[in-house]
Design brief:
Structural class: alpha/beta
Distance between the termini: 12 Å
Shape: globular
Strand order of the largest sheet: 5-4-1-6-7-8
Number of helices: 11
Number of strands: 8
Strand content: 5-15%
Helix content: 40-55%
CATH superfamily of the largest domain: HAD superfamily/HAD-like
Amino acid sequence: MIPIYSSIKAIFFDMDGVLYDSMKNHEVTWVESLKKYGIDFPPREAYMNEGRTGYKTIEIAFKEYANKVISQKDKETIYNEKTRLMHLQPKAAIMEEMPRLMTFLQQRNIRTFVVTGSRQPLLLDKLHNDYNIESDHVISGFDVKKGKPDPEPYLIALERSGFKKEECMVVENAPLGIQAAKAAGIFTVALNTGILDDQTLIDAGADLLYPDTRHFAEDIMKQMTRE
């Protein structure tokens, strides 16, 4: 049970792994795009680095697995290759119960935002049709300089929402996103929809944890209906 539902006026959702079952595609494309440049990027690292800007992930991968500093030009080349590979992946499914939850929240005048490190038009362009999210309610990799785990993305979301942090909530599935949200001072719910263990998300600072999107959506709708 979430103790702050009655005060919630805005919810900030991560995208990959929260709204779309897209992390499997990110895992494959990160591993394959970096492998072409001699980097053996473990699949788990795709989940541990989820939420970073693409360029920062590439920079870290080269530093940790090749002890190299990579140029901006090479970062762009690798990121363009990852984008190309993403377009070849199977269509990412919508996460269970999340469209119903989004409609439920919007009908109750709870403002809904998406906060993601992604710069992939493949997913960003779908948010309006699938979730009725307006473009000015999307904070993406195009909008930030630092990105997660820095609080910057969620501070931008707070500013756009016009609400106090105590009136907002974050829904995340990744350690870096949880760290960013907590650094911004926002109550954070974790959904463990990937391959990481629960403790990793708890250690990142999650206030609550659910095993999947269905349990979360059903619980929040149940609790809000009672209030």
